[in-house]
Amino acid sequence: MDPVIAHIRKDLEASADSATQASFQRFFKERIKYYGVNVSVVGKIAKKYWAEIKFREKNEIFLLCEELYKSNYCEEAFIVSTWAHLLATRYERKDLTVFRHWIDSYITNWATCDGFCNHAMGSFIEKYPEYLDELKHWTQSKNRWMRRAAAVSLIMPAKRGKFLSDVLEIAGLLLNDNDDMVRKGYGWLLKEASRRHQKEVFDFVMQNRKSMPRTALRYAIELMPQDLKAEAMKKDW
Length: 237
Prior knowledge:
With 237 residues, the protein is an all-alpha fold. It has helices at 3-15, 18-23, 39-53, 58-70, 74-86, 95-106, 110-127, 132-138, 144-152, 155-159, 164-173, 180-193, 198-208, 214-220, 226-233. It has two domains: 1-90, no CATH class; 93-237, Alpha Horseshoe (Leucine-rich Repeat Variant). 68% of the residues lie in helices and 0% in strands.
């Protein structure tokens, strides 16, 4: 084991607090592994050890990330998310193979999915938008977290008004997904897209509201004016 991994785990164990330990599990339906460390503290630990490893070869950093992921502890996955995003200026196209493997193999809850995809995958797609079709392919995965990743990887770009047609296409591909976590994921994506493209997102909702799950619909219209919300939620069928 690389000494950095051992030091991280020692710091996480030392940083656990009873209040966080008591409340951590209630945010998840599935059983998870956790130390019980406040997210802000995890971020500080991630940056502390980033200062030690940032000049290493990228593939070596990826191996450290993989070792952290294999523990299945949420906090260790959060450190991977931070490190992977800090590597954004060094991304290469071939890194998609690594990122796809991580999501498919190690992501086991919404927090680790969103932590990695919102920033690392989002930055990767902004750098290499030709891989938007890869996200669309993920919408058909048997792995619920791959399907959620297809949506939440575009959260940050959508918030800035980017990739609208792809956002709407992915939402359409996931429209009737039977998994609540996936529905919430694409609903959230539509919500963020509505910041810059309210009309287009509203039109999408109105075109699909008869079949769109109510959970996703409510997320999608959350930032809209009350009159548009009322129209979207109106039961006239």
